[in-house]
Write a structure and sequence with these properties.
This protein has 13 helices and 22 strands. The two termini are 36 Å apart. By secondary structure, it is an alpha/beta fold. The chain binds manganese (II) ion (MN) (2 copies). One manganese (II) ion (MN) is lined by residues 264, 295, 436.
Length: 460
């Protein structure tokens, strides 16, 4: 009887019952490095900076058009400091295709508005415009850091990072006290905290010996000018992002989980980067992409709908006398993005038989989208079959999943933009709890299995 079970039934055993015990140390080491990546990569710009540091240490050099590209050559293109493309040239010609892994490194956050600074009732504030799908009530009364760049009137650029260093001040958005929250408490969750109330408290001390109005605002500008040489108008040409001021930590008595801001999608970004950095001379050219703007539709010049990627691969093709479209037609892409982990506290929105569970390995999504698969690229049986076999052959624990119940909602990834380029593509990534919250949860086993999966694909 049990023989029949083994032969015919899908293996749904717990990941810890299936993973080789000898891999525990490697998993912990990997997750320690991943936590470090998270703490150094709280914005897409930080991700690019830190990735270049890691890549250069492994022999990657900036790509220069026309440079010689022998097998094993390691190059990268920094796309405007907000996205990055890395490649390790393989033995096979590019006309036979490339292996692409794409993740996004932008995460939901609060951007400063172009005219952010104001004073009200002797308190200084920054107005914000949220970026991506945020549940606004989650962003009040948590400590925030500010990261980004300001381009000053003379065109010079200054980087800003306040709140990360333990001696730095941090920031906060205040919420109503419960004593006066009777009416607010009756509102639907999505309306209780309106966007225009997401104003960051940034100071309260007025400029001394000054008679005019807005003395707190003036005092803050004075501090900013002294430290960064910026004036109020400089905010117009700035990108400043408020992100949660919490570092990644192990969670749970058994330390089996990691809590952090930005797992979506740095947990997959780091998996593919770690896999790429270990490559020597692959058979097929391996390409690791960190895309920006995924959370708002991938439209920007640093997003996956931009031609920056096509330009880079076309340049590589030129050196081998190959055309881009032939290369794409034979290429394969893992769209490495997180999936929704089954949460027993909200069981009503999940299909238990088609959900991703924590500690069951990397989640494969044949399709995303919403309703009747609307907006999905919907990987073919052949594409799913290829990845399934690849992962099985390489000891990668995986599970097939949908986001949730068909009628509950939906979402998308960059997979559709790779499909549009005539590249076979499937979504694969780590199941996340509290996705898009300031502090998300993932399981270490899934992080490690995703890394193993990314490695297996680059070696395929
Ligand atoms: Mn994502
Ligand atoms: Mn997302």
């Amino acid at each position: 009887m049990s023989e029949l079970r083994e032969k015919l039934l899908r293996n749904t055993k717990h990941g810890y019952d299936r993973m080789d015990v000898s891999e525990t140390d490697a998993m912990e080491r990997y997750c320690t490095d991943y936590r470090k990546f998270l703490d150094n990569s709280k914005t897409e710009r930080d991700c690019v900076d830190y990735t270049i540091e890691l890549a250069q240490a492994k022999g990657f050099v900036p790509y220069v058009p026309g440079m010689a590209l022998e097998p094993g050559k390691k190059v990268y293109v920094n796309n405007r400091d907000k996205a990055i493309m890395l490649a390790v040239i393989g033995k096979k010609p590019l006309s036979e295709g490339i292996h692409i892994e794409v993740a996004h490194t932008d995460s939901p956050r609060l951007d400063l508005k172009p005219n952010p600074l104001y004073e009200d009732s002797d308190l200084g504030y920054f107005k914000t415009h949220h970026y991506g799908g945020v549940r606004k009530y989650q962003w009040v009364t948590i400590p925030l850091e500010l990261h980004g760049v300001v381009v000053r009137a003379d065109g010079s650029r200054v980087k800003i990072c306040i709140g990360k260093d333990e001696n730095d001040p941090q920031f906060v958005i205040n919420d109503l006290l419960p004593h006066l929250g009777r009416e607010q408490g009756k509102k639907p969750l999505n309306e209780a905290i309106p966007s225009e109330s997401l104003n960051i408290l940034i100071g309260s001390k007025p400029l001394a010996d000054e008679e005019g109005s807005d003395r707190v605002k003036l005092a803050i500008l004075n501090l900013l000018f002294e430290k960064y040489g910026i004036t109020e108008e400089d905010f117009i040409s700035a990108e400043l992002e408020a992100v949660p001021a919490m570092n990644a930590r192990d969670l749970g008595f058994d330390r089996s989980l990691i809590g952090s801001y930005g797992h979506d999608d740095r947990v997959c970004a780091y998996a593919e980067l770690a896999a790429l950095l270990e490559l020597d001379v692959p058979e097929t050219t391996a390409v690791c992409l960190f895309a920006d703007k995924e959370e708002i539709g991938s439209y920007g010049v640093t997003g996956m709908q931009s031609n920056a990627f096509d330009w880079f691969i076309e340049q590589l093709c030129f050196t081998q006398g190959t055309d881009l479209r032939t290369c794409f037609a034979h290429s394969f892409c893992l769209s490495a993005d997180v999936c929704a982990g089954y949460d027993p506290n909200f069981s009503e929105v999940y299909d238990r038989r088609n959900s991703a569970y924590l500690n069951r390995g990397v989640g494969l999504c044949k399709y995303t989208g919403s309703g009747g698969k609307s907006g999905a690229s919907d990987a073919s049986a052949e594409v799913v079959g290829f990845v399934r076999k690849l992962f099985n052959d390489n000891g990668v624990l995986w599970q097939m999943c949908e986001m949730g119940k068909t009628d509950a909602g939906g979402g998308g990834t960059v997979a559709i933009f790779m499909a549009r380029r005539n590249i076979d593509v499937i979504d694969a990534g780590v199941p996340v709890l509290s996705m898009h919250a300031p502090y998300e949860t993932v399981a270490k086993l899934d992080c490690y299995m995703t890394y193993k999966g990314m490695k297996a694909f680059f070696h395929a």
